[in-house]
Amino acid sequence: MKNKIIIILVAPCFIILGACKKFLVVNPETNVSQGSFYKSQSDFEQAITGTYAQLQFLYNEAWQLTELRSDNTYFIYDRGNRGTKPSEDFATFTVETNNNILSNSWRSNYLIISRANQVLSAIDNVTFDQSAKDNLKGQALFLRSLAYYNLVKTFGNVPLFLTPATSYEETFKPQVSVADLYEQIVSDTKEAASLLPVRNSNTMVGRVTSGAAHMLLGDIFINLRQWADAEYALRPILGMGYDILPDFADIYKPSNKGNDEIIFEINYIEGTSQALQSTFPYAFLPKLSDPSVITDVKPGVNNIRIGSFNTPTPDLISAFEDTSIDRRFSSSIGFYSGPSPMAGIPIYTNIPYIKKFQHSHAISGQTNQNWIEYRYAETLLLIAESLNEQDKPLEALTYLNKVRHRAGLSAITSTDKPALRDIILHERRVELAFENKRWHDLVRTSKAVSVMNAFGEEVKTKPSYYYYAPGDTPPPNSFNVTQNSLLYPIPITEIIINPSLIQIP
Q1: How many helices (H) and strands (E) does the chain have?
Q2: In angstroms, rounded to a whole number, what is the distance separating the alpha carbons of residues 157 and 177?
């Protein structure tokens, strides 16, 4: 019996018929529509969990757009692996519009916004416990606000979505002004602060509370230089049970998640079938064939593809007042000497790396190290800054010196406003080193252009001092830092699919 092969050619109906009045619409059997899903409290809890999930991907990469952009860190140039150039470009101010990491940041933030909008559009139509509803609504508002805050600081004016898109036309919006974005961000964060509960023993690690909302709001007002509003937003945190830990190193230990200093952290989990682990600690190590020489996790899986980034600069190391006294130094920065797998660098000699995030874990390349976005020491420093800008230096010193006392440093006594402004900024640099604060601090204080041009000149003049092998140098177009460098370009993929978008200069 012969097999019969039947080939069916299916052409689009507009070719065969010229036009079709109706198209067959088939609902996917593996997906649930919004109308059929949001029916109960547990449905909204699942949706909020899904909204948080994107933060894990976002913060595994966020350091490249922030800390690596600053004078706090640089990278060890690998002449044998130029696939790392998209990451290096953030440090050298040579980012191109097709940078995939930049695209990831745009998409991740908008995915958070999209998921939050789904929750917010449906939650008032379903009846369940009001306190639980307020909590979930507050979390969605906070996450949407945080995502837009990330976007406006990164790209400037971007499209604003407050409801789920239900048509092609609604999917592609033009940008709105930075002022309008901040108006919405402030409104969302204020509402979140009024709805969210205060942290208690039942608060899940990684979930936002009213303290996180007040912290975000205070951070926003500091960025907007609205000093009195910042103080008003931050002061309630002082009475919410947070405090600085006696031992600086204890803040970051995975065994101490949710401790009294942490106000908001991104929660990671290792050893699951899903990608819930943090990988950034391995990016912050020197490239090693066997990272277990530092991590002590065996068998060690090499980090040659991702390592040698966010390497502490000599500038940051010298910014510590006294490395033998300041307890933050030995907790934040480690040094390694030993064999190197990198071309041109056969031996690492006392190379610095970020120690702050290196803790015991079970699987090489995967950690359960959380990313701490806001903590109480920063609350104290932001309050100090807001008070100093309002000509209240004596009160500002109270909060500043509490942070310095924990570090083992002597108290600051200066009440000169400009001098104290610089001291507080310097304190933020060392206290919050490697926590993605430095670049935005330079931008908001109008120091980014001058500081980074001076830093770039040092790198180009003394490349070996900044981890280049003999004969290697930064690209000739690097560190041309201008006012246009303070924002990143909108990813070209977004410009292509959304013709309403206008590229920033």
Answers
A1: 20, 6
A2: 5
Q: Is the pTM of this model over 0.85?
A: yes
SS3 state at 237: helix
Q: Mean pLDDT in runs of 10 for the chain (505 residues)? A: 38 37 44 71 97 97 98 96 96 97 98 98 96 98 98 98 89 95 98 97 95 98 98 98 98 97 97 92 98 96 96 98 96 98 96 98 96 98 98 98 98 98 98 98 98 98 97 96 98 94 91
What backbone phi and psi angles, to 5 degrees, belong to 373?
Answer: -85, -40
Using CA atoms in the order 122, 125, 126, 132, what is the torsion angle rounded to 10 degrees?
Answer: 70
CA distances from 141 to 39, 111, 376, 467 (A): 20, 14, 22, 43
Q: Which two tokens stand for residue 382?
A: 């932001």
Choose among 38, 13, 192: nearest CA to 125.
Answer: 38
3-state secondary structure of 120: helix
Tokens of 443: 């931008």
> Where do runs of H (alpha helix) occur along 224-370?
227-234, 280-283, 292-295, 314-319, 327-332
The CA-atom distances, in angstroms, between 344 and each of 77, 99, 285, 314, 392 are: 10, 27, 18, 21, 54
Burial environment of residue 252 by CB neighbours within 10 A (0 to 12, 13 to 18, 19 or more): buried
User: 3-state SS of 70-83?
Assistant: CCCEECCCCCCCHH
Measured between alpha carbons, how far is residue 369 from residues 252, 253, 265, 442 in Å?
A: 8, 7, 10, 27
Angle, helices 130-155/41-61, rounded to nearest 10 degrees: 20
Which parts of 156-209 fold into alpha helices (H)?
168-171, 178-195
Taking a C-beta distance cutoff of 8 angstroms, is the pair 175, 159 a contact? yes
